[in-house]
Amino acid sequence: MVMEASFLANLVAVFGEYDISGELEAKRSISKNVRRVIVHRQYDAATFENDIALLELETPIAYDSHIVPICMPKDDDDFTGRVATVSGWGRLKYGGGVPSVLQEVQVPVIENNVCQEMFQTAGHAKTIINSFLCAGYANGQRDSCEGDSGGPLMIEREDGHWVLAGTVSHGIKCAAPYLPGVYMRTTYYKPWLQTITGVQ
């Protein structure tokens, strides 16, 4: 699915942003117009299956010290048990306010069957499918929240480079006990990403 031109006319991708309250950063952000939005054809808003999309820019972005690409994971990468970092400008707590400065939080990646059991313990009959990746704590504590959707769940490799383990998709409340955050698993969607972009 590709978005209509009227929607795209107002859509801008901003790179290198940190404080959205003004232009006080030492490094300026860069804005790029979006040519098209490619939404996964099997996206299901009811179940959040295939909750992933790509933005194609009208012109390329130039990298800088504060604007760098993230690495794709290897096909067989399993991040279970690893501590990941998720970032965004989403709400600071469920029903709370939003920050002006980019936030980050560390959360452990959980096995899907453990994630399924946690949701059941919390009284939610949610199915955790293979394309989902869960991250969070049994007692809550830390989580992504409303407004973080689409943001990165990142893991640092031994060589210092960061890998995109997943993208923020959904959850129930934020940082609630036995309700971890649910992300789209990057390794699952690599074939789709490669087909759309032509990048292997």
Automatic annotation (TrEMBL):
GO terms for molecular function: serine-type endopeptidase activity. GO terms for biological process: proteolysis. The keyword Disulfide bond applies. Keywords: Disulfide bond. InterPro entries: Peptidase_S1_PA, Peptidase_S1_PA_chymotrypsin, Peptidase_S1A, Trypsin_dom, TRYPSIN_SER. It comes from the Eukaryota. Residues 1-198 form the Peptidase S1 domain. Gene3D superfamilies: Trypsin-like serine proteases (2.40.10.10). PROSITE patterns: TRYPSIN_DOM, TRYPSIN_SER. Belongs to the peptidase S1 family. CLIP subfamily. This is Serine protease lint-like.
